[in-house]
Amino acid sequence: MFMSFVFIVLVAFVAQSDSVSSHGGIFGKKRNKLPGLAPNPPNRFLCPGCLENLNKALGNGATEENKKLRRENVETIENVRIHCMKGDKGDKGDIGVPGRPGPQGPEGTCDKEQIEAVVKPLQTKLEALLSSYTTEIARLRNEVYSIKSKFVHTIGSEENPAKSCKEIYEQERYSPSGVYFLNITGKLGGLTRVYCFMEEDETCPAGSTLVLKIDGTKDTFKYSSPLWANKEVYAEENGLALFDTKETKSASFWSVPFTKICINMRKLDSLEVASLVIDETSTSLYDLIADGKYRATKGGREIWESLLPGSQVQRGCFLEGFNAHGIQDGSAGARIGVIASDQSNCTSPDSFIGFGTEGGSCDSSRKISCGNESGTCNTDADKYTSAFGYIFVY
Questions:
Q1: What residues have CB less than 8 Å from 20, skipping those under 6 apart?
Q2: CA 318 to CA 349: how far, in whole Å?
Q3: Contact 192/181 with Cβ under 8 angstroms?
Q4: Burial of 356 (0-12, 13-18, 19+ CB in 10 A)
Q5: How far apart are the C-alpha atoms of 335 and 356, rounded to whole Å?
Q6: CA torsion through residues 387, 227, 326, 338, sign
Q7: E strands of 75-120, at which residues?
Q8: What is the DSSP annotation of 108-127?
Q9: Do residues 252 and 240 make contact, with C-beta atoms less than 8 angstroms apart?
Q10: CB 367 within 8 A of CB 374
């Protein structure tokens, strides 16, 4: 009877566990493993009652056979208890509340040299990209304009002259910088060729008309030159190219109205050009300057000094604008620019920065018609820098 009971319990155990394999069951030859049991078998349970009955069956009775069975299968029973009664893995819990911030670390150190070491390579890369884009845009402008010119008489052509470069730009935004035809008289045949600046950058406004180019080492356009007060061109063919060092005065000096003046300056030994845009409205540059009357602007000393690297004027009296000049003979004057003195009045200013300049120097042998002069009769403090100047109107 006892053996029959054991057999029945074992059959129940096998049916409940679903763990027996073809290797001979849990009491077969491989007693140290339960074939088919993974470390975490899904949905595989052994009823607690069956396991308890099996323990009792193997533990009861004094026969040597039952004791041996119990000893040999203790490990198997524990495996069943551990693995078969373990449930499915539960859902992941919610994220816990963040902890408090840690203590603040020590302050870092970063000096000017470290900043420059990081910024300079980036700045160089950016400048290269800007240069590349500018070149490509100019190429595309030329291509578009060239194609269009083959089919129509674009504004600024000999067949369709414009009144100003600004008018050309407003009607043809893709027009490249270069030479165009203007009708300065409004009558048939009253044509002149001028250089138009059409680039959209940080120098002059796109659509600016070239009026003058001045070599500061020559006296062609010094303050007292009659070219500032007449309607005569000077070396007009030199106005068909931009950044060279050939002087010119175009008919646009007395024929092109504007709302802005763009002045550019560069040292003779440099290709770097500095620009300044002045908000000024006039029917022409001739009408603004030829009468010799002083007309003030409001740029400020530092703005004018930025036109020419290393330039300076005295820190006393300061006048800026058009036809700025001292009262005494031989004192500084500038058709477009600033004059200054070390005194509180500008009766006899000694220094200037600008275009169409003259006088003011303690050294009468120095003649600068465009650039910076700051003569204080002190050799160590004196500044004498000739520049090349470009004047546009917009």
A1: 14, 26, 35, 36
A2: 9
A3: yes
A4: buried
A5: 5
A6: negative
A7: none
A8: P---HHHHHHHHHHHHHHHH
A9: no
A10: no
Q: Which two tokens stand for residue 82?
A: 């551990």
Sign, CA dihedral 49-55-58-60, equals: negative
Contacts of 291 by beta carbon, 8 Å cutoff, 6+ apart: none
What is the rounded (10 degree) CA torsion for 370, 375, 381, 384? 20
Q: Where are the beta strands (DSSP E) in 57-120?
A: none
* Distance, CA of 197 to CA of 242 (rounded, Å): 9
Q: How many beta carbons lie within 10 A of that of residue 181, not counting itself?
A: 17
Helix, strand, or coil here: 179?
strand
- pLDDT, one tens digit per residue, over 281-291 is 999 999 999 99
**Contact call for residues 215 and 173 (beta carbons, < 8 A):** no
Distance CA(276)–CA(265), nearest Å, equals: 9
Q: Report mean pLDDT in 10-residue bins for the chain, 394 residues.
A: 42 42 37 38 46 55 62 59 64 88 82 79 80 75 72 86 96 91 78 93 91 98 98 96 92 97 95 95 98 96 94 92 93 96 89 94 75 70 87 98
Which DSSP category does 226 fall into? G
CB neighbours of residue 176 within 10 Å: 18
3-state helix, strand, coil in the chain (%, to 5): 30, 20, 50
Q: Provide the token pair at 322.
A: 């058009």
**CA-wise closest residue to 306 among 356, 264, 244, 357:** 264
For the chain, the C-alpha Rg in angstroms (whole number) is 48
DSSP assigned state of 313: -
Residue 353, SS3?
strand
Domain ranges of the chain: 111-152, 207-393
Which uninterrupted H or E stretch holds 169? Answer: helix 165-171
Cα–Cα distances in Å, from 51 out to 54, 57, 85, 164, 376? 5, 10, 10, 105, 114
